[in-house]
Specification:
The complex is a heterodimer. Chain A is an all-alpha fold. Chain A has helices spanning 2-23, 35-44, 68-81, 85-89, 93-96, 101-119, 124-136, 142-155, 158-163, 170-176. The longest helix of chain A has 22 residues, at 2-23. Mean pLDDT of chain A is 75; it is low at 21-57. Helices cover 38% and strands 12% of the residues of chain B. In chain B, the strands form 4 sheets. In chain B, strands 3-4-5-10-7 form a 5-stranded mixed sheet. A 3-stranded antiparallel sheet of chain B has the order 6-8-9, with helices on one face. In chain B, strand 11 (199-200) and strand 12 (203-204) form a beta hairpin. The chains are: A mainly alpha, B alpha+beta.
């Protein structure tokens, strides 16, 4: 009887030993000297995405605008919410590795302006004014200006486009053509 | 059977034999089972078991989605940068599959999971390393990790091993130790934010928009599995002073870097999926442009110089890095 118990416990002990060995990499683990360095390096090597949460109020509209005045007020609010180049310069590396949220949000807002024009063509002249203004603002990040220029192009004929007397650099136009 | 190895079985031994058998079953039961839960394979990708059910579902659908991309519908620039034999979603899936094998969740912590398999390991191109700009990326701050979306772990671990001349392995639940013998070992960590970034204070990108966004990130990270010697990992460079992201190392000098690859993928998808809502489409266009301005900067000049035709004429048209990976994947 005693032999039976000893035998059983021995087997359980060996089993636990095997289990422990496997969970610790099956062989005696070699301590990784530079593990902390590895973590550091992981960060250094910038395989990261990050984004920025901005606390300020950002306008979002999905419904129709009842008047040009209301639409204009919305576009002014949208313009005011766009980040500036200087704003982006203050972002940390982690916040710009991937497109900052504020840029994606600007894209959403420009899409809402565009959608408003699709739904209500009476607003197109105001919309064109807004997109033109946005494309020409030198303090805005180029990706926002290029997106505005692309939308401006959508709502204007070529001749109108020339008559708009745009102050938009080739760089902005070239970038917009990548869409 | 009365004889085993010429020994006569004594009936009184039977209880002891049964006890020992039980012990052996316990040994093999514990020993053969892995140390944690087992993940699943989707389209050849290993999904770590610690993803939530919803995250696993999204990833599964994302990978299946790639196969639904119609043939002959992709942008020629995308086909060129991915060096694909033809234009099909299946080939994009294959391209990612060559570079990414393990998808790991935020809970995956490298601490106590990296081991030295072999000291003084003989690496390919032992004296050639990527050139890192010293920039803000050298500062490590845990608090900033909250917004991190994805990491290509294996190319960094490979680089670390190469620098220390040790062959390293990473223990992955359900898989055991995976030897990192190439940047293409392909371990991509996806943070929780990767799955939720589409939520913008009251506005959600539609389902397809979210999917394209996630896939563009997966493609970006997969690109970091490429390269050898100085191009190893296709690491980024510091953006020039005139750039909107000046002094941050979030730009690519090459024309086939991670940012341009994902930008071209998004552009192709936007052309194919014209049915996206204008708002979602516009958000993806903003991301596309934001990626694009970080690409191929060796041939881009400051805005004030760029308008000069003489300088533009001297700009090289191709600045590709060799994507051939080091080692054995």
């Amino acid at each position: 009887m005693n032999l039976k118990i000893i035998s059983l416990f021995s087997c359980v002990f060996v089993a636990l030993l095997v289990y422990w060995t496997r969970t610790h990499h099956c062989v005696t683990p070699t301590p990784l000297v530079a593990e902390s360095d590895l973590q550091q390096n992981q960060t250094d090597s910038n395989h990261r995405y990050s984004t920025q949460i901005r606390s300020q109020h950002l306008p979002l509209r999905t419904e129709h605008f009842n008047s040009k005045k209301e639409f204009k007020a919305f576009t002014q609010e949208v313009m005011h919410a766009f980040p500036t180049i200087t704003d982006l310069h203050h972002y940390k590396h982690d916040q710009v590795y991937f497109t900052p949220e504020i840029i994606i949000h600007a894209g959403i807002q420009l899409g809402q302006v565009e959608e408003s024009l699709n739904l209500n063509p009476d607003l197109i002249s105001e919309g064109i004014y807004f997109f033109k203004d946005c494309a020409q603002k030198h303090h805005l990040p180029i990706q926002i200006r290029a997106l505005c220029f692309a939308k401006l192009t959508k709502f204007t004929e070529f001749n109108d486009h020339q008559q708009l007397h745009l102050d938009v650099s080739d760089e902005v136009k070239e970038l917009a053509s990548q869409i | 059977m009365k004889y085993i190895f010429n020994l006569r079985l004594n009936p009184s031994w039977m209880p002891r034999i049964r006890t020992m058998s039980l012990g052996l079953i316990l040994i093999f039961g514990f020993g053969c089972a892995d140390s944690g839960p087992v993940g699943s394979f989707v389209e050849g990708f290993y999904l770590d078991p610690h993803f939530t059910a919803q995250q696993s579902q999204l990833l599964t659908e994302d990978l299946h989605f790639l196969k639904t991309i119609p043939d002959h519908s992709l942008d020629s620039d995308l086909i060129q940068i991915l060096k694909m034999p033809d234009s099909s979603g299946q080939n994009i899936l294959r391209w990612i599959g060559l570079r990414t094998h393990f998808l790991l969740p935020e809970a995956f912590n490298l601490d106590q999971k990296v081991f030295i398999e072999q000291h003084n390991f003989s690496y390919e191109n032992p004296t050639l390393f990527p050139k890192f700009d010293s920039g803000t990326e050298l500062q490590y701050n845990h608090s900033s990790m909250e917004f991190v979306l994805a990491n290509n772990l294996s190319s960094v671990i490979y680089l670390q091993g190469k620098e220390s001349k040790n062959l390293l392995s990473v223990k992955i639940d359900g898989m055991g130790p995976v030897i990192v013998s190439s940047p293409r070992t392909g371990m991509i960590q996806l943070r929780n934010y990767f799955f939720t970034l589409h939520q913008f204070k009251g506005f959600d990108l539609d389902g397809l928009g979210q999917r394209l966004f996630r896939l563009s990130i997966l493609i970006h990270e997969s690109r970091h599995s490429d390269g050898n010697g100085v191009s190893l990992g296709f690491f980024h460079s510091v953006c020039p002073d005139w750039h909107v992201y000046s002094k941050q190392d979030v730009c690519d000098q090459n024309s086939n870097g991670a940012y341009r690859t994902s930008a071209l993928f998004l552009r192709s998808m936007l052309h194919i999926h014209q049915n996206l809502s204008p708002v979602t489409k516009s958000a993806l266009q903003a991301i596309l442009l934001d990626f694009y301005i970080r690409t191929d900067l060796s041939k881009v000049h400051p805005p004030e110089l760029k308008s000069l035709p003489k300088i533009q004429g001297n700009v090289p048209t191709v600045n590709e890095w060799d994507e051939t990976p080091e080692g054995r994947s």
